[in-house]
Amino acid sequence: MRLINALVRTLKIQTFSIIAGSEACNARCPFCISKMTPALSVELSEPKVNWKKFKTACRVAKNYGTHTAMFTGKGEPTLFPKQITKFLDEMAEFNFAPIELQTNGILIAEKPEIYSSHLKEWYARGLTTIAISITHYEPGKNRKVYLPHKKQYIDLPALIKTLHEHEFSVRLTCILANDFIDSKEKIENLMAFAKENEVEQLTLTPVNKPEESENYAVWNWTNQHHLSEKQKKEIFDYIEENGNRVLRLSHGAIVFDVKGQNVCLNNCLSVNPNSEELRNLIFFPDGHLRYYWQYPGAIIM
Ligand code: SF4
């Protein structure tokens, strides 16, 4: 506790990330190491959560001055929608706002008859923003990444409309990759898609080129699809020239207003040991609380 108090005095945390669900995912992204696939006809059981430690984690997050809470996962959090509701109930007394959910959106789009009631429950419990991961504005390109085993990608504009009808704010989080969104023309088209669908926020994150990876297929794909320095410069220069900087986040991301569209340029520099503001406080379901995904040693409790 002394360590926590010492940290609290000097650090601020930007986002309280809550790992919901398991490593299972219904997508097949080639850049993801989460390759566990839920059996289609088998109801997956909710992964266990240490709820006592979750409450403590909420308290620590509040002590750090964290305002934003985000449900994310090593897999897809919406596979366990009732658990998201339970998390929201457990954290209600801490009054986090905004509360965000990062998802590939597939289940919400494919099973509206089931997910409509979950969306209502989440909204009533304070969920404000749903962030949908994409790699393109074209369905064919997104299918190639997320659903190569299916004939079609989801109807993304219809999903955004549904989320707006449930009063959520929508963020598109786009991974920038070679042969996907890799030029200023495609950025223009992506922004036009976001505007047309009244997407509140658009986040652009270049896919990481890993030095090494435990998974050869992931290493190979990211190695082939990371943006070249020239492509990155073209995109970054375009945003700088056409936008106004409206916010700088502690991890180096810069938010622009580009012709009325919110665009966040994420440069992936998430490790900054000298910063007085950390990007993440991450709650793991077993009760551990860490501040970097990639370093097991970055642990608070
Ligand atoms: S949607 Fe997310 S968790 Fe699922 S495979 Fe893609 S990157 Fe991995």
Task: Explain what the structure shows.
This protein has a single domain (2-33, 48-290), classed as TIM Barrel (Alpha-Beta Barrel). The chain is built from 10 helices and 11 strands. The protein has helices at residues 2-10, 51-63, 81-91, 106-110, 112-124, 139-146, 156-165, 184-196, 216-225, 229-242, and strands spanning 12-19, 68-72, 99-103, 127-134, 169-176, 201-206, 243-248, 254-258, 261-265, 277-283, 289-290. Helix 3 packs parallel to helix 5 (112-124). The longest helix is centred in the last third of the chain and has 14 residues, at 229-242. It starts with a helix and ends in an 11-residue tail after the last strand. Mean pLDDT is 89; it is low at 39-43. The protein binds iron/sulfur cluster.
**Counting H and I runs of at least 4 residues, what is the number of helices?**
10
Question: What is the average per-residue confidence, as pLDDT, rounded to a whole number?
Answer: 89
Largest sheet: 11 strands, mixed
Give the overall shape, derived from the CA principal axes: globular
Assembly context of the chains: single chain
Q: Provide the low-confidence segments as ranges.
A: 39-43
Count of folded domains: 1
Cofactors and ligands = iron/sulfur cluster
Distance between the termini: 9 Å
Largest sheet, order of strands side by side? 7-8-9-6-5-4-3-2-1-10-11
Strand content: 15-25%
Give the CATH H-level superfamily: Aldolase class I
